[in-house]
Amino acid sequence: MNASIQPLNMSQQEWELRVKLAHCYHLVDYFSWTETIFNHISARLPGDENHYLVNPFGLNYSEVTPENLLKVDLEGNKVEPSEYDANPAGFALHSAVHGARHDIRCLIHTHTTPISAVVQKKNGFSYDSFYGAQLYGRVAYHAFEGITLFQEEKQRMIQHLADKHILVLRNHGIAVGESSIEKAFFLLWTVQRAAEIQCQAGALGGEDFPLSEDVKQKCTDLTAMLITESGFATKFFDAMVRKMHESKK
């Protein structure tokens, strides 16, 4: 990404959010978690207007910049002029979550091959791996209703998500939401690693060694504490941004 210049009429807070969200798009591309021009990552803007930032539809994730991110309302309407439009499939999911869960300020939707494979299985995610155990008690499930274009599905998604931070869209993919871009990215990374290991373990055959409920809960609680109290997610995010930039030199 070329050096970006903050517009004079934009607050420092919004500009920093735009830069961070653009980094998030580039990281998802760097880790090969993209689905060509599809899928979406949104970040809620500060204030009471219920506006959020999302990618311009038709651009590769590598082409997203702080400047070209769209500012939209909960109905997906652009609140500032842009030559681009947003992906209509993202409105139902992102507007539903941002409208109902004010604790979620960043939402990431993906369907990588390992994640799509796991969510197609009736039992969904296993919590018996190191990464899977960190998801224990955090995963909700929503039945596949086709491409998420329609308003009537929004309430059902929210009911199924409840107070969780990972929404499995069965036979489709996932949406992960957290209180910051850094936390959402770390959660996505954890889900991706859990799915990769679950797929590999399943391919080996034989029985998995189960973890106890106490151990799984301990893993979830400890991860939450590290992310909240130590700034772990921010350190991880910043390190991955540096790694990505180093790889492109």
TrEMBL record:
Provide the species name.
Acinetobacter celticus
Origin, by domain of life?
Answer: Bacteria
All copies of domain Class II aldolase/adducin N-terminal, residue ranges: 19-199
Q: What is this protein called?
A: Class II aldolase
GO biological process entries: monosaccharide metabolic process
- In Pfam terms, one family for this protein is Aldolase_II
Q: Which family does it belong to?
A: Belongs to the aldolase class II family.
Q: Which GO terms describe its cellular component?
A: cytoskeleton
